[in-house]
Amino acid sequence: MSASGIRTIGVVGLGAMGSGIAQLAVEAGFDTVGREVSDELGEAARGRIAHFLQRKVDKERMTDDEREAALGRLSLTTDLAAFDGCDLVIEAIVEELEPKRALFAELERLVRPDAILATNTSALSVTEIAAATSTPERVVGMHFFNPAPLMPLVEIVRAELSSDEAVEAAYGVGEKLGKRPIRCHDTPGFVVNRVLIPLLNDCLRVLDEARVTPEDLDTAMTAGAGWPMGPCTLVDLVGIDVHVHASEALYEKLREPRMAPPPRIVAMRNAGLLGRKSGRGFYTYE
Ligand code: CAA
Q1: Among 153, 185, 217, which residue terminates a domain?
Q2: In terms of pTM, does the model score above 0.90?
Q3: Residue 253 maps to which CATH number?
Q4: What pLDDT, in 10s, does the model give residues 51-69?
Q5: How far apart are CA 148 and CA 32, in angstroms?
Q6: Is 20 in the pocket of ligand 1 (CB under 6 A)?
Q7: ω into residue 147 within 30 of 0, thus cis?
Q8: Does the Cβ of 153 fall within 6 Å of ligand 1?
Q9: Which side of the chain, N or C, has fewer Cβ within a 10 Å radius?
């Protein structure tokens, strides 16, 4: 399967990342099947996509007709069997190895043998996910960044047994989605998170070391280092739980102390302060 043969994309998991990926797919003209575990969660994702497309209409970056057409390309399901017509399925479920492996084993049975299977994992091993299937050559990583509709990068991750064809098809789809894809191998954190996670953890340690407020730390890094958003705002956006989990996964693999999550954010995660999604993290959200 080459990128030009890919017409229908499945997205499993319509949380922040999955709904952003589904939005990109419908905007780029792909028929898109989105799967959530309940109709309510699926409809909530459709609502978020409709909202962001409406904002584009309001800002005259899209016409009403284009918005309607894009939304018309999105179908929702709770049934994985609905992926039987997909050419590419992108997984964006919970960031844990075993559920992902179980999902890939099931997807392999349900999708066409030539369909490509991609994971949006940010810190787990694509090779370990692919090993749950008997056709690991068609499994690749497609790692989008949060918020997926706005961040230009997608890392196309080659696992140990990924075929050239699958890697190139995923790269081509990344381009069609309007992204700037890069190719990399399946190493812990790939490219961006290998650098960004220890850097963010350094920032969070400075909170205590320099006894600086989150607001002032964010000002320091935006006004002094040119970051588009400060580290506390960014970790709140990504999700404190997601950041802790990614830090732990990298630390487990690389054993570098800077990778380990600072105790302060582990305590925040344990207290349910998850950032934007829970309404409270370093900051409070409406
Ligand atoms: N989905 C779709 N559209 C969205 C959106 C979302 N989640 N969030 C915002 N938008 C749309 C909105 O319509 C918004 O306009 P309105 O507020 O008028 O509705 C529009 O985008 C523009 O939003 P902003 O005005 O907030 O845009 P900005 O110019 O301030 O840039 C940004 C926003 C691109 C996010 C910028 O702040 C930025 O680059 N931040 C850094 C983000 C970053 O580093 N992400 C990587 C995180 S790490 C990661 O993802 C890896 C991992 O594996 C965990």
Answers
A1: 185
A2: yes
A3: 1.10.1040.10
A4: 999 999 999 999 999 999 9
A5: 16
A6: yes
A7: yes
A8: no
A9: C
